[in-house]
Specification:
two-stranded antiparallel ribbon; mainly alpha; about 280 residues; 2 strands; globular; 9 helices; single chain
């Protein structure tokens, strides 16, 4: 005689659970979008190859590969949005790729180029940078859609990587042209400062302009178009130096803007999104 107070048997419960899992599996889309992930893979490849070239002491090539990784990284998300192929898989894959290309790669290249001679101080600086990149990416992923899209909260990891490898590329080129006699070990202190600064600024609350509000379909003035051509001309004259100075200026801009907001008594763009300490 069945007990009316009992629910379904364990076999029936397992059967229902199996049916629910089977139904969820049928609803889950299979496969991944190949086009945006192709750009992400290209960025990951450049980042990994830059590490290999840095270990081989081809520092100029290692730095250039990091900049190529930056270009591919800037395209994968845009391609996904333009083609309607955004996905959770792509977001996670992009973050893991960024950790290699803009986290591990710049730190290891800088360590081989200049920081190794500093002993523990050198690898600690490299680790601070890697940890800052990891925390920066984790915070970015958890704050998607929650912060002011006009600004990045903290220095973006691609820009931080460009600062670090830009220094290496610039002085490698200057040394090759016999304009300076300084090599990596001679610039260990400068490399240490840049690495520590980039790592800590990535986890700061300084607002850095994101350029996401720029509309590529909007008409611009003739002088604006001329300014873009002038920028391309300057980059072609000395790519290493111009790109390093650009990203160095960008890396300082967040603190300058934060100081301006403070002087004017205006709140930070992220003030309303900061956690409530009393909660």
């Amino acid at each position: 005689m069945l007990d009316q107070g009992k629910g379904p048997s364990s076999d029936e419960g397992r059967g229902l659970a199996a049916d629910e899992q089977s139904h969820a599996a049928k609803k889950r889309p299979r496969g991944v979008y190949w086009l945006p992930n192709l750009f992400t893979t290209a960025s990951l490849f450049c980042g990994f190859t830059s590490i290999v070239q840095g270990m081989n002491h081809r520092f100029d090539l290692a730095a250039m590969l990091c900049f190529f990784a930056l270009i591919f990284d800037s395209l994968d998300g845009r391609v996904a949005r333009w083609t309607g192929t955004t996905s959770a898989f792509g977001e996670q894959y992009d973050s893991l790729s960024d950790m290699v290309s803009f986290g591990a790669a710049p730190a290891l290249i800088m360590y081989e180029w200049a920081l190794k001679g500093l002993g523990k101080f050198g690898w600690v600086a490299a680790f601070v940078y890697v940890a800052g990149a990891a925390l920066r990416l984790a915070r970015f992923n958890t704050n998607l859609g929650a912060v002011d899209k006009r600004f990045f909260q903290g220095l973006p990891s691609p820009a931080a990587a460009a600062m670090v490898v830009g220094l290496i590329w610039t002085f490698t080129e200057l040394e090759a042209m016999k304009l300076v006699e300084w090599r990596g070990p001679d610039l260990a202190l400068l490399g240490w400062l840049i690495t520590i600064y980039a790592g800590l600024t990535m986890v700061s609350n300084a607002p850095f302009y994101s350029f996401k509000t720029m509309n590529p379909r909007r008409r611009v003035s003739f002088m604006t178009a001329f300014a873009f051509m002038l920028v391309f001309g300057l980059v072609s004259l000395d790519p290493a130096l111009v790109l390093f100075l650009f990203f160095l200026g960008y890396g300082l801009s967040g603190w300058i803007y934060a100081g301006w907001l403070r002087a004017k008594g205006r709140p930070s763009p992220f003030a309303r999104h900061e956690p409530n300490e009393s909660a």
